Structure formats: C-alpha cells, structure tokens
Amino acid sequence: MNSKLDEYRRKRDFSITAEPDEQPLRKRRGKSALSFVIQKHAARRLHYDFRLELDGTLKSWAVPKGPSLDPRDKRLAVHVEDHPLDYGSFEGSIPAGQYGAGDVIVWDRGIWQPHGDPRTAYQSGKLKFSLQGEKLGGDWTLVRTHLRGSGDKEQWLLIKERDQQARSADDYNIVEALPGSVLSEASIPAKPAKPTQAAPREKPPRSGVPLPDMLKPALATLVDRPPSGDWRYEIKFDGYRILARKQGREVRLLTRNGNDWTERLPQQAKALAALDVGDSWLDGEVVVLGDNGLPDFQALQNAFDRNLPKDIIFYLFDAPFLHGEDLRDQPVEARRAALKAVMGSNRSPALRFSEDFSAAPQDIIESACALKLEGIIGKRVGSTYVARRTPDWIKLKCRLRQEFVIIGFTKPKGSRSGFGALLLGVHEQGDLHYAGRVGTGFSETRLRELHDRLKRLERKTPAAVDPPTGAEARDVHWVKPELVAEVEFAEWTREGVVRQASFVALRSDKPAQEIGHETPQPAESIEPQRNDVAMHRAGKAVVAGVSISNPQRIIDPESGGRKLDLARFYADIADWILPFLNDRPVSLVRAPDGVEGEQFFQKHAEKLSIPNIRHLDPSLDPDHPRLMEIDSLKALIGAVQMGTIELHTWGATDDAIETPDLFVLDLDPDPALPWRTMQEAAQLCLSVLDELGLDAYLKTSGGKGLHIIVPLKREAGWDVVKAFSKAFARFMAHQLPDRFSATSGPRNRVGKIFIDYLRNNRGSSTVCAYSVRARPSLPVSVPIARDELHDLHSAAQWTIFNLRDRLDALNGNPWDGYANRQTLTPKMWKQLGAKPPRT
Questions:
Q1: Is residue 734 part of a domain?
Q2: Annotated active-site residue in 135, 236, 563, 634
Q3: The pTM is what?
C-alpha cells in the first residue's frame, strides 16, 4: 500500500464513509497532464480543499475562505494529509462521527502546470504553477509560512499572480459568483446542515446481491389518454416521491433526487425498520389525507412545516430490491405481489400498500377526476423496474398541472399583502423561458411566507431569455431562479404561456434546473406492437417489424439500458439519423455482451447475416468482402438485433467513393483537461475555418471531445483532402503549441488537444451523427448549432434517454445550411502555409 496515504487511512473508517479507499500506488494510465481539484467542504466550518496531483497522490491544503482572483488577497492554506487520486471525483456526504463529516462537492477541477521542478519547489515551500480549470485559470503561488496552526500543521498562503485572469475582490468574488459543482447540479447551502449519523454498513446476505448505496426511481411518461394493451392502474398520489433503503435495522428515506429526509419522517423510518423485508429498496410516495380521505398536498406541506410527521402516510407501490434479492428485472406484477405479501405483517398506520384497480382505464380516470384526485398511474404488465422515465409507466392527469420555476413577482394591489402574482418560467433547450403568471391560490399566510423568501432572492435582471417587456414588466421584481412552484392551469397559449393559472404549492423535492415544458405524449407512441405479449413470453420483441431476441438483456449496467431500449431509440430517431447513413458505407461497433464486454469493429459484411442491410458493389473495396450500407429503418434495427451499438460512416458516398464530400476534425483532449478548454479549442478552430472561408458544423462525439465537419464539393481525392486536414491541424499546433497537437499518441497530447485528421483516409470512418456510443450511460453523438457551444456542458450530455427531449424542443435543424458545395482553393492552402500534394 502507499505509505504516503497512511494518515488518510488512519483517519477514516471505510465501512462507514463512502470516501474512496486507498489503492496501491499505481502508474498513471497512459500519459496525461497533472490534475488539480478544489472541493467545497461543509464540515464544522465551510472551507475549500485545494489538491494538486504529484507523485501518485493529491497534495492537499484546506483553504478556509476559498481562492480569490485578487493578487492582494493572501488566502490561508493549511497543509493536510495526502489524498488518493480517486478522491478528485468524490462528491457526497461524509457521515457524522467521521473525520471531516459533512457534504462535499467538486467546486473546480482541471490540470495544473508547475513552473520548474514541482518536487523541488514543493519541498522548498514555494510552488509556482498555472491552472486550467472550469473556473480558475492563470498563474498562482503556494508559499509556506513560518507560522504553525493547530496540531502543528503547516500554514501556507495561496496567492493569485497578476495576469489577465486576475480581478479585484471589490468587483468580483468567484466563490460567491460560482458556488456550485462542476460535476453535477449539487450545491452546498451557506449554512450547511448537520450531517446525519450513519451506522456501519452491513455486508449483504451471501444468497443475495449487493444492495446499491443509491437508486434512482422509475419515472412515468405523461400521455393524453389510456393506451391499448395490458396495464394496471393506481392512484396518482398528490405528495412527495420517496425511496426507502433498508439494510439491517438502518433505514434511509431519500427523495427522487437523493436528498436524505430520514430525520423529517421518523415515524415512517421506525415503521420500516420493524417491517420484515430484509435488505431492501422500496418505492412509494408520502401523503397526508384530508378530511375527505383523499391526498391533500397543501396539508402535506403543512405537516412538514409544523413538524407533524405523525400525520404523514407512506404509500408503498414497488420493491426493486426485497430480502436482499434484485427484483428489477422481474415483472411489475410479481414485484408488487411480493411487496403486498410482506406488507401483511405491517402494524403501523404510517405505512400502507398502494392498491391497483381492475376496472376499465377510462372508468378509473373518470372516477379519479370526479373525486378531484390529481390523476392515475398506469404500469404495463410485464414491465421491469428501470431507473429513468420510460413508456412502460404512464401518468394521466385530470387537469393540466406541472412545476414551474419562479423568476419574479409583482407588487400587490389594493388590500392584498405580499405580492400580486408570480412570474413563471420553464427550461427548453437549456434556456429558461418565460411561461406566464399565477396570481390566485394563495392564502394570506402563504403570501407573507413566500414574499419573505422571494425578497431574499431578488436580482436586478430577469433570468429568462425572453422576459416580458414594456407595460408587462412594470413593477416586476426579478428573482434568482431557485424556487419551484406547482401550478394548475387551463391551457398553454400559442405564445407558450399559461392561462387561468392557480398556485398549488412550492416543491422542495425537484431542482429548478430540471423543470421543463411537460407535454403529453400521444397514446399511440407507447402502444405495444402487434403480438407483443406473445413475443414477450417467448423472450422476444418486435421493433419496426424486426424481431429482437433477448430484448430485456441489460447492455449498460450504469443506466439500466436494455437491448430493447436501444432498438426503440433508433426507431424513434430514424428520421434524424438515416439521412446521415443513406448512400454511405457503414462500419459497425458490435458489443454482444454490452458496453462492459468485448467490442468488435466490423467494416465488411463477411458471413454475418444482418437483417435487411444492403451489401455494396464488390468493386468498391476489392479483395475484401462487400462493404455495407444502412438505407432503411429495418436495416437500422437489424443491426441492433445483431449486437450493434455504434454506427460509423465514410466521408464519401458509394456512388463517388474516390472523392470525399467532407472532412472531419476530431478534437481529442487529454482527459485531464477541463471542459472549458474543449469549448475554447472548438471556437478557435471554427474561427480559423471562417478565415479560410469554409463553412463548418459541430457535433458532440458522445465521448470526451467534439467533431468539426467541413462539407466539400465532390472533386478532390482522398490524398488531397487528408493533406488539407493535416495542414490545418499542423497550422493550429504551430500557432498555439500550448493548446494543440497534430501528432497522435497520448504522450503528444499531455495538457493539449490532438486535432485528429487521420479519419480522412480512404476506408477510415467517423461515428455517425445521432449514433449511440458503446460507453456507460449510452451517450449519443449529436449535431449542435454554433451558438449552443457556450452552454454545452459535456460531449456526452445527451443519451438515448434524454435526446428525444432535445429533438422535440428544437425550432429547426442545428445544421441548417449544410451543403456539399465548398472547394479547397489555392488561397486556403497558402493561408495554412502548405501546398497541395501532386496528383
């Protein structure tokens, strides 16, 4: 084991804390720049942990006030024990009783470049370096002082050097301006909550499977009417979704976003501790029943506000894990039967089982609406438990009702107190848009309480990109977009605002960043294919007329994605991807055992029979089996049936295969580089292409980098096109050698971005636009417009599970104007300082 980490290990009990255990000192995986991370840590006192990678560990300092961009500020940095490299991605809560108990987020990360020999400088106590992070950049110094802190710890100073990144503290405080995580949507409040006591983890039963520490809930798709098929329906409870984790006698109650509400629900936790379910994850909703015996959301909020948990009932409706067994792949009716059986031993009024109804779905929804319930939930018979939104769980609402982000409020009129109306917003395509007002549904108490909270969030400018103007904006107070309101309304107008809105309640279980325009899906879009039930019983399914064997097989354990999900995804986006596949040779990345198994790159048809795929003329690639083309929906789904995940296409069409109609620049970063560096690199490349007079188009790679596609007129051969792309890469590397490399190999891109031009060979290929990648979470390579680059937060931010939301929100084609009409002119070669090859 690594002796440098002895103190780190001595201070922690890894049977309790989720912090990474020490690993043996390992060689770096390939060549990569030195990483740094700054973690915001709400221990006894909020502080920032500044960590620099050196000699296989993270050298660490605790900075009480956090970094400052003002060179006049000499921030105290207390030297603490080395941490393992894996700690650089740790976010979570360190349990009470453990060293450093409290919440931790990754506030910034990236690479650091020492000025001179870092080991000598570190030992001498004066370490100068540059940072390239998501938030911090430029030159910095850590200098050791002669003062001693508590426990004889060394006290250093963290100082920003005077450069272009320096800013006066009078004008800007970066820790206040940018408080959140760069890895997630997590944040830490100004006054951190007291960490909850955690008991040591017990080992799961040998006969069972390891109980996950966290579990995301299955979510329902909003539909406009009951679909056909075999479904079971339950009441849609008007409450808070809660997942319960029970291991031994320890019970944790978590919201859908992972917030721990165990202390807020003590009776429910006690009842679950007594329930004979073994090590389990149980899914349900907490509600308060009104005088009429029906769920009352306002009464639930009052119960929380007044600390009356005894009034709250936890309705359980699913058991993803029960008695240490993983039931997620079992049919929903089997999971619910097992849950109902164990609920027979329940003696607590705090727990109940959510019954389903066998009547016709239209009768159920009409009865629910007559009782003034929110609606009903339907679950497809035979469906598995998948931790995301799927069409196997649906919701039908009695009234239009959804969450909105509060972006402002108006002054009250007449005798009204507090405020007049709330201004609402929803997210679409990453932007916050104005969505109307709500001025009714408030009690006097709620007006005062909400007004007090809003005043603390006031800001000078609107957070929405399209706020009301003129008379509509008069007397409006804008607020930070942090609070979420649930609102009932009559309809959406053509302008995208709500009519006849009435306030229901604030929601504290859903983050504002996730609130979007909720549109019901047509029932036809989720209805089963003909003979689906029989196919399911036979272990098969049918998508687009193609039989899918082993449809329930998990191909991505991280997301729970199944082979059937992949097939349905490609069928759903066929209109988007087929134009990029038609008329081009295609290479397939097959992963028969999923993304964690062996992967095969297949360029030729060989002996593998892929249903409906087109085999091209043998003369296109002599001395090899035929090249392939996917020119139809059935061919696309046929490839999935044979284990294909990724689709790669040539840069030429099969009718003019010797004259490419595009070239690709693959921006491939050192993995340690922050995402901001990738965005800047893409913008620099696009600017140079603009100077050359070449239109260029961006897409995410679905991995770490970005692809720049330059369409061409079909006239130059492969050698010329490759030489031009190589000249461009060398030009960028010559102009900005600290940022770019034109030479392949990990050692040549340390702290840099390799501009990969090698995909422009004859026979080479690039992952197709809208292709899925054979990687965890099943990300997708997605075309984007240039003006989206700034707001992009990852090359893998779209997956098979969320791309449809993006496509539905688009106002047009992100590659509008794409045309293969450009010529590589002598002037362009000259601008790059290169000459075309002789042909």
A1: yes
A2: 236
A3: 0.58
